[in-house]
Amino acid sequence: MKVTVAHIGRPQGLKGEVSLDLRTDIPEERLSPGSVLETIPADAGPLTVATSRTASGRWYVGFAGVADRNAAEELRGIELIAEADDGDEDDAWYVHELVGLRVERPSGEVLGKVTDLLNMPAQDLLEIKQTNGVKALIPFVEEFVPEVDIEGGRVVLTPPYGLLAGEEPIVTDETRGDDAGDEKA
Questions:
Q1: Of 64, 79, 112, 139, which is most buried with the most CB atoms under 10 A?
Q2: Could you tell me if residue 178 is left (phi over 0), alpha (psi between -120 and 50 degrees) or otherwise beta?
Q3: How far apart are CA 61 and CA 93, in angstroms?
Q4: What would be the CATH architecture of the domain defined by 2-83?
Q5: 8 A C-beta contact, residue 154 and residue 102
């Protein structure tokens, strides 16, 4: 099975290097010099990684035969793909497995659908389109996403208040304050 590794972004510098929008959590392996990546569209590749580096949390790659900014610009928007790993990890998913899954609370209340998974420097973010049409970015960590059920077609979400649009505040005696209920004469 083929998986998306990255989308090629804008050129960086004058020597043919490009920025990448990553779709893998193992870029060190996938983007090491000498790696050969297929492309979509297919006639743009395959591309062989000549150099790779990170700066300020972004990945930059130079490909063999791409020697200047003009050649790099022609690669913008191309999707880089590779064979999927046969990993044993129970808590590892590919973006294509997550996109389209129903997002719900533990109670079963449907909150929306997964639209993307963004690989960010600090942590991955699950992008969901809420039932009200508003998109939200949720840190893809066990505290907020305790369950991913690919076969059941759902992701269970336990977000803190304020992470989703349109949430009503939860008011309790503790959140109201000690003197909120006292009447003054």
A1: 112
A2: alpha
A3: 25
A4: Beta Barrel (2.40)
A5: yes
Q: For the structural domain made of 95-156, what CATH number should be given?
A: 2.30.30.240
Q: Which residues of the chain fall below pLDDT 70? A: 85-92, 166-185
- Residue 1 in tokens: 């099975």
9, 63 in Cβ contact below 8 A? no
Q: Which two tokens stand for residue 144?
A: 């907020």
The whole model's pTM is what? 0.56
Q: How many CA atoms lie within 13 A of 99 on its CB side?
A: 8
Q: Tens of pLDDT along 20-60?
A: 988 877 788 888 899 999 999 988 889 999 999 988 888 99
Show me where the domains of the chain are located. Answer: 2-83, 95-156
